[in-house]
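RECORD TYPE: inverse folding
INPUT: structure tokens
STRUCTURE:
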């Protein structure tokens, strides 16, 4: 895992990005060469501007790949058929753009056949790249891990290491911090406490140590041994650090205020606020312009489908705990809460209208919130704003809940692209862990990543509502 602009990115993802960009760059040069648009010689090539054109083509194709979810966490576990289908969708869109571009500058030559060959080359190359990376990973092997602890947390860490492809590790064994080791399976190796951790690390070529123990006071942990291993160069992670890197969330059950205080992140300086506000204005204005026909058709459909207002206004909690009126296209009947009691929205909610079911699944109901972004009440990316009655309830049940109000609420967010629609307090706890990750690691890079992944979520219904 690499930390890129405060965000954890898998090495395999970086390799895929590099290989895909190189393939796309070469594909563009192939098209230009076949159409006799590339002069002979490297200097002539640079002067012709084809290098910039090929670079632009590569950037557009990577954006299309990302928009269909090829770089999303978990894509390595998707079937080959699904991978090819999504790649074909991105390549088909890229082919249309490429044909129009080269047709306008290629003169008398017809780019259709050449563009088709280039797209087949890209599809084959995309599959081959992922197959090669997978085989190399299997040949090289995965890092070897020692888990400190034998309790439920240690077992949960071991399960995550075995099932999450982006952080796959080989668990060599467990080092107990107490005499009790109940619950361990026969196939799980538990080292004797009579041995030092340094000896175990050296003997079994341990690459990483994960401390899966919540209570670290009272001498339960051999801190001197862990310090010796850390000084010798062995990385050591606690539970919060592990889950931040592995799941891109901050676990609240094992979280301490000291970890939040002393760890890196929470960048909210003037430069970050200026960049975020500029990004919000540009993206929201652009999306309002592009989606205005969709918004007009939605307004007409809502008016014809059921009686009531087109826009639904609801009080929500925003930056600093201040309330504002959140705007959405109405997707429920006007008497959805006629008794005045706030309720969680749920899947297959009977209060949802026919048009409402469609606009909720496609996220069209969120489009009026772009006006709130322009006003500065919301951001394009951030935690979803909750109703005051829910906030009062959740802050009593969820630790560090008010931290989400240290940034502006968002039209979309890290929790929205990583977790399905929530309809309970337990769902709110899980989504809050993703929100904490965003608050801690927020950056312009992460904002762009969330917007790109939102396209994939909407296209393939990866988050149910």
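DESIGNED SEQUENCE:
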């Amino acid at each position: 895992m690499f930390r890129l602009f405060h965000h954890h990115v898998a090495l395999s993802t970086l390799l895929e990005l590099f290989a895909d960009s190189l393939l796309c760059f070469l594909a563009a040069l192939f098209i230009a060469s076949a159409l006799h648009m590339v002069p002979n010689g490297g200097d002539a090539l640079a002067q012709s501007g084809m290098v910039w054109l090929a670079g632009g083509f590569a950037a557009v194709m990577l954006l299309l790949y990302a928009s269909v979810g090829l770089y999303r966490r978990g894509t390595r576990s998707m079937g080959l058929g699904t991978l090819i289908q999504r790649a074909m969708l991105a390549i088909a869109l890229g082919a249309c753009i490429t044909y129009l571009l080269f047709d306008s500058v290629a003169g008398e030559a017809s780019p259709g056949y050449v563009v088709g060959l280039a797209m087949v080359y890209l599809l084959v190359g995309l599959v081959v790249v992922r197959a090669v990376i997978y085989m190399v990973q299997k040949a090289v092997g995965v890092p070897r891990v020692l888990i400190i602890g034998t309790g439920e947390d240690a077992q949960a860490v071991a399960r995550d290491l075995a099932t999450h492809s982006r952080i796959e590790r080989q668990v060599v064994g467990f080092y107990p911090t107490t005499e009790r080791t109940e619950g361990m399976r026969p196939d799980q190796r538990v080292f004797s406490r009579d041995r030092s951790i340094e000896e175990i690390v050296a003997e079994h070529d341990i690459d990483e140590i994960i401390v899966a123990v919540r209570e670290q006071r009272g001498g339960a942990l051999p801190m001197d041994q862990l310090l010796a291993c850390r000084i010798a160069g062995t990385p050591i992670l606690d539970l919060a650090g592990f889950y931040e890197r592995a799941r891109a969330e901050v676990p609240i059950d094992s979280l301490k205020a000291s970890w939040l205080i002393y760890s890196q992140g929470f960048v909210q300086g003037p430069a970050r606020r200026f960049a975020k506000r500029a990004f919000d204005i540009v993206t929201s204005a652009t999306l309002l312009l592009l989606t205005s026909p969709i918004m007009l058709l939605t307004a007409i459909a809502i008016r014809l489908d059921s009686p009531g207002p087109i826009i639904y206004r609801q009080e929500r909690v925003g930056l600093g705990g201040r309330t504002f009126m959140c705007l959405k296209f109405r997707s429920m009947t006007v008497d959805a809460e006629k008794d005045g009691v706030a309720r969680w929205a749920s899947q297959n909610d009977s209060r949802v209208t026919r048009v409402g079911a469609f606009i909720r699944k496609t996220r069209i109901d969120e489009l009026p919130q772009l006006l709130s972004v322009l006003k500065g009440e919301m951001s394009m990316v951030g935690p979803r704003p909750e109703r005051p009655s829910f906030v009062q309830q959740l802050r009593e049940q969820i630790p560090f809940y008010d931290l989400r109000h240290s940034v502006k609420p968002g039209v979309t967010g890290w929790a929205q692209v990583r977790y399905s629609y929530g309809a309970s307090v337990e769902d709110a706890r899980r989504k809050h862990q993703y929100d904490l990750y965003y608050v801690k690691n927020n950056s312009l890079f992460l904002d762009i990543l969330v917007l790109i992944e939102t396209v994939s979520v909407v296209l393939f219904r990866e988050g149910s509502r």
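NOTES: The mean pLDDT is 85.
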